[in-house]
Write a structure and sequence with these properties.
Elements (H helix, E strand, L loop, with lengths): L2 E8 L4 H10 L4 E6 L19 E8 L4 H12 L11 E6 L4 H6 L5 E3 L3 E4 L11 E4 L12 H12 L6 E5 L5 H8 L4 E5 L3 H13 L7 E4 L9 E7 L2 H6 L1 H6 L1 E13 L3 H8 L3 E3 L3 E3 L2 E8 L1
Parallel strand pairs: 6-7, 8-9, 8-11, 9-10, 11-12
Antiparallel strand pairs: 1-3, 1-4, 2-3, 5-6, 12-15, 13-15, 14-15
Helix pairs in contact: 4-5
Length: about 300
C-alpha cells in the first residue's frame, strides 16, 4: 500500500505546534530533519534542540483526502499566535516497500585496523579468521559508523588487549567493551547513565557468545572504584572534562587511556584536564572528530 508524505520547512519555535497540527489532521507519524546539514554536536544537558531550518514530515494513509487535510492545517494555523505566513507544503507519494530489508541494506561489515571487523547478524563475516564482532544497530549509540567509534575501535585493534582489564565509560551499545573482550581482554566494566544502553551492552555480549561473567554493567553511581589496565570513554567533551579526576583514578599506573566524542577545537581543554595524570599522545583526527590517548603517569 502506498503512503502520502507531507513535508513542511519550519522554524524550530513552531515545531511543537506543527507536530500537533499534523497529528490532528490524521498523520500516522511525524519526523524531523535538518534541511541545511547543520549538525548539533553537543546540546545542553536535558535539551533536544532543533536545527535553525527544520523540515517536519507527516506520513498519511494514501486514502487521506489531501485537499481536506491542507484546509484543516491552514484553518488550525490561523489560530496560532504567529506572524509567520503559512509555509508551503511538499506532498509526495511513497511506494510501499519492505522497509526492514531497505534498512538492513544500509549496514555492511566494516573493518577497523588489521584484525577487527564489525558485522551485522544478517551478514556473513568476510574473514572468518578475523576478530568478528556481531552487532546490530539499535537504540544505544555505537555501531562503528560514527567517526568517534571508528577511532576507538582502531585504537583497540592497535594495542595489546590480551589478559588486560578494561573500563568502557559511557558504553552505549557496548561495542568497545565487547570488542576488547574479543581482542583478548579478561574482563570489562561497562558504565553508562542510560539503563537502555546497559541492556544493549548485555544483549551484544550474548550475541557474541561471551560469558556474562566477563562483563559487568553499572550506572555511574553504582560502579565500583576499581583500576583497569585500559580505559576508553567515547562520550562528549563537557562530561570528559568534568570526569577527568574520576577517570584518572580508574586507570592503573602505566595503564592506557583513550578519549573520544571530541571535536578538533575541543582538544586543548582535554589536554588541560588530563595532562596532570597522563602523558598524552598527539590527537588523531577523522572527519572533524578526534581521539586522545595517553599513558597513566
Amino acid at each position: 500500500m502506498p503512503w502520502l508524505q507531507v513535508k513542511i520547512e519550519i522554524k524550530p519555535q513552531l515545531a511543537d505546534q506543527f507536530e500537533d497540527l499534523l497529528l490532528e489532521a490524521g498523520a500516522l507519524s511525524v519526523t524531523y530533519q535538518d534541511s541545511e546539514d547543520q549538525p548539533i554536536y553537543e546540546p545542553e544537558l536535558g535539551t533536544t534542540p532543533l536545527w535553525a531550518n527544520t523540515v517536519i514530515s507527516g506520513l498519511f494513509d494514501a486514502q487521506q483526502n489531501m485537499q481536506q487535510m491542507q484546509q484543516q492545517l491552514r484553518q488550525a494555523y490561523q489560530q496560532l499566535e504567529t506572524a509567520e505566513a503559512f509555509p508551503e507544503l511538499d506532498i509526495e507519494i511513497l511506494e510501499d516497500k519492505d522497509w526492514e530489508r531497505e534498512w538492513m541494506k544500509s549496514y555492511k561489515p566494516m573493518q577497523f585496523g588489521k584484525r577487527l571487523w564489525v558485522c551485522p547478524s544478517w551478514c556473513d563475516a568476510p574473514d572468518p579468521q578475523a576478530v568478528n564482532l556481531m552487532l546490530d544497530p539499535g537504540l544505544a549509540f555505537g555501531t562503528g559508523t560514527h567517526p568517534t567509534t571508528e577511532l576507538c575501535l582502531r585504537w583497540l585493534d592497535s594495542i595489546e588487549c590480551q589478559n588486560q582489564t578494561v573500563t568502557d565509560y559511557g558504553c552505549g551499545s557496548g561495542i568497545l567493551g565487547v570488542a576488547a573482550l574479543l581482542l583478548g581482554a579478561t574482563s570489562v566494566l561497562a558504565v553508562d547513565i542510560d539503563l537502555q544502553a546497559l541492556q544493549a551492552t548485555k544483549t551484544n555480549l550474548q550475541r557474541n557468545a561471551l560469558a556474562q561473567s566477563r562483563l559487568s554493567t553499572y550506572l555511574p553511581e553504582h560502579a565500583p572504584a576499581q583500576e583497569s589496565d585500559i580505559l576508553v570513554a567515547n562520550i562528549l567533551s563537557g562530561p570528559l572534562v568534568e570526569l577527568a579526576p574520576t577517570l584518572a583514578k580508574r586507570v592503573k599506573s602505566n595503564g592506557l587511556l583513550a578519549l573520544s566524542g571530541l571535536l578538533v577545537n575541543q582538544l586543548q581543554e582535554i589536554i588541560d584536564a588530563y595532562s596532570a595524570w597522563f602523558t598524552l599522545d598527539p590527537a588523531v583526527e577523522l572527519d572533524g572528530w578526534i581521539r586522545v590517548t595517553g599513558i597513566r603517569k
